[in-house]
Specification:
- Chain B: InterPro entries: Spore_III_AC (IPR009570), Spore_III_AC/AD (IPR025664).
- Chain B: This is Stage III sporulation protein AC.
- The complex is a heterodimer of chains A (130) and B (68).
- Chain A has 130 residues and is mostly helical.
- Chain A is elongated, with a radius of gyration of 21 Å.
- Chain B has one domain.
- Classes of the chains: A mainly alpha (130), B mainly alpha (68).
- Chains A and B meet through helix 1, helix 2 and helix 3 of A and helix 1 and helix 2 of B.
């Protein structure tokens, strides 16, 4: 079971960080970062399977691959922004973490622009203007 | 499954050894060497972390951005 491994690694990392925190705070912080990265690498394999399901469903439903691709990119950006902001927040830089999240949100908005445009065009075509 | 986690213990070991050397050098009155040892230990650990970050970014890129 993966969950037991994850929990035990988390506890071990917490103990090691407590051990090192007052002597070498930088190395303790890097242990935290490494643990977070391990968990995300662990997570990404399962996310991969779910995304294969999503792609398969989209192909079956004849959705244009462009939309699926955009959605996947949005999810990827949000994951990376989340990782970065969490790691920076652990170091105590709240404002930098907030800016990373902001940049992620803006990039997501930019990626969503073509979909939004096509939605607007569809609505305009529904109600033909004279 | 979760990858090779012995690296956590490895890094904690590096940290403890570096802290010990730091303390000993400080007791001997060599502040500069103590700082230097601390810096080198940090850089060694940083290399591990950088490798891991690169690994994660490659995985995310492979999963999310080149398919669909």
């Amino acid at each position: 079971m993966g969950i037991f491994e994850v929990v035990s690694i988390g506890i071990v990392a917490a103990v090691l960080v407590l051990l090192l925190k007052d002597k070498q705070p930088a190395i303790a912080y890097l242990i935290i970062v490494l643990t977070v990265l391990y968990f995300f690498i662990f997570l990404i394999q399962y996310v991969n399977e779910i995304l294969q399901l999503v792609t398969y469903l989209g192909e079956e439903a004849n959705i244009q691959s462009f939309y699926i691709k955009t959605i996947l990119q949005i999810i990827g950006i949000s994951y990376i922004a989340e990782i970065g902001s969490n790691i920076v927040k652990d170091a105590g830089l709240e404002s930098v973490a907030f800016k990373i999240e902001l940049v992620g949100k803006i990039f997501i908005l930019i990626l969503a622009i073509p979909i939004f445009q096509s939605l607007i065009e569809t609505i305009i075509n529904l109600f033909p203007m004279s | 499954m979760v990858g090779d986690t012995s690296i956590l213990f490895q890094i904690a070991g590096i940290g403890i050894v570096v802290a010990m050397i730091h303390t000993v050098l400080k007791q001997m009155g060599k502040e500069e060497f103590a700082q230097f040892v601390s810096l080198v230990g940090f850089i060694i650990v940083l290399i591990f972390v950088i490798n891991s970050i690169s690994d994660l970014f490659e995985q995310i890129r492979a999963v999310f951005f080149f398919r669909g």
